[in-house]
Amino acid sequence: MGDRSHPIGRSARAGAGGAARALRGVRSAALRTGGLTRRVTHAHGAGRSGLGSLVEAAAVNSAGDALVAVALAGSLFFGLDVHQARGQVALYLLVTMAPFALVAPLIGPALDRTRHVRRYAIASSFVIRGLLCWAMAGAILHSDEITFLPAAFGVLVLSKAFGVLRAAVTPRVLPDQITLVTANARASFTGLIAATVTAPIAAGITALAGADWTLRIATLVFLLGVVFTMRLPGHVDTPESELAAEPASGRPGGEAPGGRPAADEDRPQWRVFPRLGPAVVEAMLANSVLRAFSGFLILYLAFLLRQERFDPVSHNLALGMLAAFAGAGGLAGTALGAYMKARAPRLIVSATLGAVTVVTAVSAAFFGLWAALAVALAAGLGQVLGKLSMDAVVQREIGEEMRSSTFAVSETLHQLAWVIGGMLGLGMSIIADGRVAMAVVAAALALAFALLVSRRADGRRREHHQGHPPLDGAHPPEVRT
User: Fold this and answer.
1) Cα dist. 126→10, 133, 198, 243, 375 in Å?
2) The whole model's pTM is what?
3) Is 301 helix (H, G, I), strand (E, B) or coil?
4) Which conformational region is residue 432 in: left (phi greater than 0), alpha (psi within -120 to 50 degrees), or beta?
5) Where is pLDDT greater, at 61 or 95?
């Protein structure tokens, strides 16, 4: 039996050797992939400034969120008939607003007050979500809804808090070679790739081992995020001395960053939103229109494609193509933002809204399956590119003492717009065909675009009369956009 020349022994050794080579190949591929990822995320000075670590933390966050989403996914839509699905989706849209009821008035101001310990705030969001995922895994096994529902709600709130923190921290880790739009896109693109890779793996784990094991793995992923967070440089946290000096901002006319009067510093931060500068307000309003359009389009077309047949394509294939084109649009918008060198994010937001309006009008004139897919692609691209540019406007125009609150309010506003658009899409899917619906939406987008252009023209005339430089002009040298 110890004879090495025995056929069985040779076969066993060959099998063991093949397995070892396969493991070495997997390890080598993983190392090469990790090295490539590190070079991409740390390129153009991002490794030295800390942006690379922030991007990696965002990728881990997206992977964890994908695991949670797959674990919690149910037969909300495809397992029901059309009329049942409408009611369930409407309820889901309302439920998605619940986390934002805390993010805007409570979480945002709290994050602003703790900006001297931002690394620990980000790390805490990972740790607490990991513990909540572990609690949800146990609750699934024991059918404990009392534990499961609050834990799921907490995970959603902390996920939004992480997004607010990441956006607020980005200007502090921005290298000289990268614009804010590019930095935001790099984080979004990496997160999108991480979620895309993680989602099918999570689906396989859920099918084989159950949702509880998917949530346990999510716990490990979230705890891994702590490692990347603590690798952020110390200048992510605003020093106490800088916090004390901020009320005396040194801006002309006693203004705080973002064009707000210094007297507003004593007001509750989330209530200062109506007094934000015109550049921020315009970007937020334009993005609200894009988000409402995206919510409308996704739900309207989803139900339209379930009710009407576009031969020779089946209902399910049409829905799959719709999801693929919308996802491709989002991916294209993120990639475009990542490689964009533009230094006028406010202009990008307006141009995006105008382009989406044109595509929608053309789709209304030639409505069919391919027109629906084209407008879904445009909506995905417009929503992502507009969001990246709006984040850059807020990061540029709003001082650190209020940046987290502003992002929290903007996220709430945009989610509300998405929900309203989705509700309108549900209603329109009952009473209007594709050509009429696209025509109505194109007219609404055109009106919003015209109001935006008119508002900007009025603002420039006022600035000209008052002798102020245009908002899209030069910026202080310490601000890199």
Assistant:
1) 50, 11, 17, 25, 36
2) 0.68
3) helix
4) beta
5) 61
